[in-house]
Amino acid sequence: MSLARMWAVMRKEFIQMSRDRRTLSMVLIMPALLLVMFGFALNTTVDHLTTVVYDQSDTAASRAFADAFANSGYFSIVGQVASLQAARSAIDSGQAQAALIIAPNFGDQLLRGRTATAQLLVDGSDPNVAQTALFAGGLVAEDQSSQDIAALAARMGQSTLTGGGVDLRPVVLYNPQELNVAFMVPGLIGMILQMQAILLTASAIVRERERGTMEQLVVTPVTSTELMLGKVVPYVVVALVAVAASLAVGHWVFAVPIAGSVPLLFLLSLPFLLGSLGIGLLISAIARSQQEATQLAQFTNLPAMLLSGFLFERSSMPQLFQWIGDLIPMTYFLQILRGIILKGVTLVVLWTQTLTLSLFAVAVLAVAITQFRKRLD
Hints:
Elements lengths: L2 H17 L1 H21 L7 E7 L4 H12 L3 E6 L3 H9 L5 E5 L3 H6 L4 E8 L3 H29 L10 E8 L6 H23 L1 H8 L2 H5 L5 H29 L9 H25 L3 H18 L11 H8 L2 H15 L3 H25 L6
Parallel strand pairs: 1-2, 1-3, 4-5
Antiparallel strand pairs: 3-4
Helix pairs in contact: 2-12, 7-10, 7-11, 7-12, 7-14, 10-11, 11-12, 11-14, 11-15, 14-15
């Protein structure tokens, strides 16, 4: 073995790497950037669960009970609602993960030394959220009960009292068995579809250049818009077939019931798939090689996996990374998937997510078409 010849090859490789500055920058900068981002963002502890309160008692005691939930750190009160139906709607739409329902006679019962009742509705579509809410809610109710009983005993001049306090009755919605597979399968469907859509189209234009078939397209009257849309539509059909196959596997293999409308799920999948395919086309329009296109596709998929709520609860992330998650289409598609499959909600509840995905799809396809130039590099 000749060290001189090996050194010559190594020197050639370093020179080539230094000339391909875009790829070298991604290799050197992306790992550090992703580590900083996800090191701050990811948190396996579930806290600050968004919660609405339906206080039918509207007394000092009921307000103190709601404040105890907010002060625990596990619950974040995001609003008051005026009915039980409004509380359920807040959970259906994803605006709240829990709802505290306080009975009308809550304050009177505590003043009389009787047991006051309250109900905690919990979104069971995420078992981690449900388990945390049940555990934390029980602790808060027990602690508040002890304080209320002690305060009443002091007013009556007694050392202790039997009975009284708060009886918190939890109700787990949508996934009462708290099965983790019911939460993961819809998320996996969304992630697999996005990864497949982006990777399929990320190398589309690059592949045309590398194979030399771009020359044939250059001499045709096909416009950039026609070429881009012509590449997208076949992949949309393939992606919709993949949606059907994924739903079938989730239902028949993993026994995940589909509570909502399957046709509606197909319909609302369209803007997400178009947006994902548009991202792939945008990558293929700016990438110089299939290797670079694949790296950019991976860089796109990783934040979607970690910041969208697929694996980690978004309410536990710092506010900055929640805002970043709001810019990721997967965040809204997961709400659609879990909303239809687990909760059985309709377009009336999901129209904001659908509109957001539709606007994103139009924007990213427009940018992809603008970036593409029907010419050889």
